[in-house]
Design a protein that fits this description.
This protein has one domain. The chain is built from 3 helices and no strands. The longest helix has 21 residues.
């Protein structure tokens, strides 16, 4: 997952902060959860919810 470009000075500075790293991680997790909520494979926990 590409979330920013380290060749861009502003994005590189943001990537160095824990808060931005946490924001990226949360966004990735939210995307995964949304994907599986809409396409829950049979036999998985998501399908059983």
């Amino acid at each position: 997952v590409e979330s920013a470009f380290i060749s861009n000075p502003q994005e590189e500075a943001r990537l160095r902060t824990a808060a931005y790293q946490k924001e990226i991680a949360r966004s990735i997790l939210d995307g995964i959860n949304t994907y599986y909520a809409e396409r829950a494979p049979e036999g998985t926990r998501y399908a059983m919810l």
